[in-house]
């Protein structure tokens, strides 16, 4: 009971931060379609650079984030991450005024940089402040905060950025260049006020986090039980085979999650579904993820171990991907949305399974796992390239080997190298 009280306040504070993660991250699904129109991009592959610019920051900043945390500690590191995100949000203002796609990508990279620092600190923090065997339950609670924010963000931004966009796109075809530029400038300006508000909120949260009652975990507080003998004999974080396999698993999972949430609108559009309807598809993916997190909270570890939950989710990923490729129209779209359920428990399970037993290397291991989030930058681009020759629907086949590898990690990989 006293243990629960000891991490109740940190859980609330970190929950607020995960809400912020979700709000900023899941806007990307709307931004992909919005920026393709506003910046007059030629292909879906170009528009998927939105996810690349955002998630590549995790790879670039993963190890530097670990160094920063070693100097600042967790709490100051989280505050710094929020401040960096605020700067990235402000970049959207001149980007919208100039209607410059590269500047938008720059802003997304800066936001991703701040998030990389936040994720490197917050995910191990949630794992550390309670028993490792129930870490997936705590991360599932964080996931509910994250995906609830994603649903709210998708609703708000689809209404702001994509309202009446079908009429606008149809009208652009018959406009002269001057009138067309005026309309597109007005479309681009829709995000200026929202991102100014986001920047202000992030700055306030940075100050609030810095002066909050969030306890800072010292190096000696980090878990070494179960690894005191094994981990102490290691000289490098790369000497843990289960961690290496966990990094690959995280890369593949995040790529699949981003594809299910961020490509579904453009996929619906490719099926000739109007954007007035397709703009809500990301919300469907997030709703399924939310459902999965709720199940995870009640089922882990009482009824399911973290590894078994991950295996079940991987099997669901194989099933829904297969159905998405084989079924027509809205049924196929529904199967892509249902991948949200398959992806839901993956992060809460992969992270603790991968860092379990690494002892003193936990910060570096966490940084490497955050770097693996770069899968969200790479896999959508692979999908964008494949759809040019295979078509939007068949290109989703690429997710099948990803889910099969995740299944391997859930059944055998997480035990690799352990006595």
Counting DSSP H or I runs of 4 or more residues, the number of helices is 20
The helicity comes to over 70%
The helix/strand class is: mainly alpha
Major β-sheet annotation: none
* Number of beta strands: 0
- The CATH architecture term is Up-down Bundle
CATH fold group: Growth Hormone, Chain: A
What share of residues are in beta strands? under 5%
Whole-number average pLDDT?
A: 86
> What is the rounded Rg?
21 Å
Task: Kindly report the name of the CATH homologous superfamily.
Answer: MFS general substrate transporter like domains
Membrane topology: Multi-pass membrane protein
Domain Major facilitator superfamily (MFS) profile: 10-418
InterPro entries: Glc/Gal_transptr_bac, MFS, MFS_dom, MFS_trans_sf, MFS_TsgA-like
Family: Belongs to the major facilitator superfamily. FHS transporter (TC 2.A.1.7) family.
